Structure of PGAP1 family protein:
Amino acid sequence: MFRRLAFLWLLLIYGQPLIAQSFKIEHYHQLTNHTGFERQLINTTPFLFRVCADGSRASLFRVSGSPSGTPIPYLQTRLQVLDPDTLRYGRILTTSQSADYLEAEFRHPTVVDNNPVTTLQLVIGPPSATTAILSFSVLVGQAPLLMVHGLNSDNTIYTDMENQLITDLGPLAPSFLVRVDYGATSRAQFADNQQVIPHYIDATVAELKTRRVAAGKVDIIGHSMGGILSRLYLQSANYHDDIHKLITLNTPHGGSQMANFLFQPSANLALFVKALLVTGGYLFCNCGAFADLRVDSPAIRSDLNGIGLNNHKVPSHAIVTTKGALFNTPLPLKPLLTAAEYALAGMPLGDIFCGDESDWVVAKASQIGGLPQLTYSIVDPDQQHSGSTKNTSVIAKLKQLIIAPSTGPLFHKDGFSPPTLIYRQCEPLAGSASTGSQTQSSLIITQPRRGAYVKGGSSLTIATTGTNVSEIRTIISYSADSLYVGRELASATSQTISIDKRATRRVVVVLGKTPDGTYVSDSTYFYVSNNFCESFQSGAWTDAATWSCGHEPGPTDIAVLNQGHVVQITTNTAQANAVISQGGKLVYTNSSNRLRLRVEQP
């Protein structure tokens, strides 16, 4: 779960801290009013002391002993930070002492610069005294970063971002990068995931503690619903003052009108596309998360932005991306990722989002969340919702925000003020998605034939012909979460696409727009296989020399009978997945011979 960024490089540069041999310095970790994080010794001399720049009060230092046996009047001492810049070097808060020791609570710095070491000094005498009898160093690293994914996703979306942060920031990268994973429940309602954020924060702080690093807070980057879950924890009664900075990315702070559109049964076109393209239940779901993400849901209006709004506040920044309509102009078939977005790409999204720009899933205003200028960034006007965690401009902005002080102008300190959004369903979207029953408009897929087999790595022609349609949109599934999409302003189309080698059933959907704004449609499917046995010549089915694959076809093979070849079935044990004739034919040598086929079912 964790990736450790070692501090060993600093030992080579700065060496060990200056410590008088007979002094004993102990570093304790503690989080006030947080069960499981009571005061605990995590380090002592002569080891290097390490803290995170999270602004927390998680560290307490205790000094005892004396050099050369000379008693130290601890009741007359104080612990101070050598440099007065509290943002970079922290500060001493409360002090308790006796004749034998001094204890001081240390507030961590909030920012790291190119000299990430703070020096603490033990001074004897009145406040005017400046001569230190002891100095020791504390190494400061960035606050850990939790990377929280959203709906129907998992932590792999952050792999590229994590690697880039480590490469580019080096020693200034977060002390730990934690890719939160709640993929198994990411479709569930918000309430079912309310423990995700506090669980990972506690686990991160505890893991750092075992490595002798004191942290009391984390930074969070939350993509989409991940930002909502972070805010819900921040605003809850269970919040433990353990978030340092909150950065949201494509987060629907005011909900998403697309969730309304996909959730409503009256959105006939959406449901039609959904029904035809779902090959494993992936694309859309009338599940708890979709219900909660609607702009008028109780989860958005009451739980997130109701009476509990901004119960607690932390420095926050919103990263925003937008994406123009995909089908503003004709587009040849091309591969695109994330079927959940592209299945409806090019529909009049401005109607769904009430004229606001969007990333195809969340309106821009909802992503901004009511934050003022400077504390939100529109980093890419051509980036859709999914995939933004890999966007180089997004990663560059995140790097800037990681290093920037939480007290600076890039972070808003007074909470979110999300807009109250509305959803209206416009007639072009509400129009019936006919399956060809209309008498004046029709659309038919002429290629490929239903149930055809296609060789992996080859090409395939998709052809349609329509009557009384002005444009044709083609959508082809080629994996659980990706599609080919295209649009032509024509009543007939013919486009050739490359087929990858993943053996599976693929779905083709075509939508034709009629003069009244409704849609006619057709669908088909084909299979991709890498197990083709083509006939080289005429001969017996059982003869390996008959086949290009060099063996008799088996139950997973597609047997292709090429032009002019006659293949003889001479046994009752011949078998294949399917047989395709390209001008060849089968001949049974007697009535007892058999060929068993294991034909794929639609």
Summary: Residues 2-142 form a domain with the Immunoglobulin-like fold (CATH 2.60.40.10).
